[in-house]
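Repro:
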Amino acid sequence: MKKLLLGICVLSMGSTGWAQSAPSLGSAARFAVLGSSTVTCTGATTITGSLGVSPGSAFTGFPAPCSVVGGTIHAADATALLAHADATKAYAALLTETCNTNLTGQDLGGQTLAPGVYCFSSSAGLTGQLTLNGNGVYVFKIGSTLTTASNSSVVLTNGARCGSVFWQIGSSATLGTGTTFVGNLMALTSDTVTTNVSVTGRVIALGGAVTLDTNTITAGACASGGGGGSVGGGGDGDRDRDACRNTDDRDKDRGKDKDKDKDRRDDDHKD
């Protein structure tokens, strides 16, 4: 039985090691909006979480007509610099994810997807509703641009969590009017969030500007997925490792008890 448990532990730990997992956002997790050159906001916008700009320092539209609640504004300071560095590391980690499904040429609208890594060799579009179904990590690797049509949406079902949804954009993203978007939007260049768009997650531009216009962006309801379950997993790998550690601990304890019994017998024999 002990050998069987050991074999199961080795196999489960090995398979967990091969699976892709959500990258850590580090200090960038506290930011709802993070731009590189500037953040420009027009129209009444509420950002729940911090706002940062680095290495640039320009931001316009704050404190009115746009506002930051539950966070602070960091412009070209040490906090923003570290957040930009951490976001860059997370972006680089996403680039290394192995593609499970190539969706090049397909619209994301009308699709229901399970956890996994989805790839587009060039641009990607969303027209209508995209449903993410099930607990696990979702990674969308998009070679160039992401564009959503007006009133499009990303919907989470059956345990899917926004903190475990990552959008790696090779150039820039544009969210069309009235879009309801979910996840960590990470563009290499810039993000344009048009009128009446709501984002549950984060809007990050690593090389250029973030442009906002009458939006609601909420990071607080979207806990970082970094260190979470593997793609398609839902965190079972952690429970497997715990079970293996618990088994090892029990074996060690039994060994200690046997040693103690032997010492007592030796002492009795001496007497």
